[in-house]
Amino acid sequence: MSGRPIECETSAPGGETVSREFVSEVIPRAIFQRRKGLRRLRMSFDYENRLIIAVPWNCSMRKARDFVESNRDWVIDQAASLSPVLSLEEHFSRSPFISMEGRRIAVSIRRVEAGRSQWIYDEKRAEGLFQLRNSDPSETALRKLLRKVAAVSLEQRVRELASRHGFEPGRVTVRDQKSRWGSCSRNGTISLNWRLLLFSPGAQDHVILHELAHLRHLDHSKNFHQLLSSLDPQRTEHEAELDRDGARWMRVDR
């Protein structure tokens, strides 16, 4: 980041957030978030391509705005390099595949006058069809179907991999997380992002195995990493895919 961060002292504990949107000459969509315990102004882009300015609790909004303007070049450069936020139809027009059951499934979208919107899966041919009724808003219908597919297929994959490797997870939930691909709670609940369907089968399995490994090591200790590497011999390749494609896939359907 160009420009020197503005130092703003604060001794307030906690992490309460107050957000405020504004229209800036630098970028049209930005949010200021006041945070207790933060000592410096910070900027980053979220997965909706909004500029997030984290503001120390006792720092004035004028200083925060000046901070954005003083880093104009960095903001413009970063904004230009962001992946676009894509609708589901736009995404599948570019990458018509999902992963389920450990396989790569070719998908297509077809609109029909009669009948209902539904997911039709040909297991033998490894092909799937999103059939959308013309009277249904296409993006809404596609989102509903895709998340149903994700809820069923990702839980099935968790159970399959858990059984194969001797894990006993609790509940499995599939949600629309803002920035995480998965998480594992202390009570054994595994939560996954539905967008894992968009990765290759190997990368999808890697995230699931990562969360299963947390059932034994609820940290990122040496023992955790040794276990994960033993579960996924192609770990390096799969983590590289997550790094390469993660930001793009996280921006789908925002």
UniProtKB/TrEMBL annotation:
Listed Pfam families: YgjP-like
Spans traversing the lipid bilayer: none
Domain YgjP-like metallopeptidase: 40-244
Protein name per the record: M48 family metallopeptidase
Organism whose genome encodes this protein: Puniceicoccus vermicola
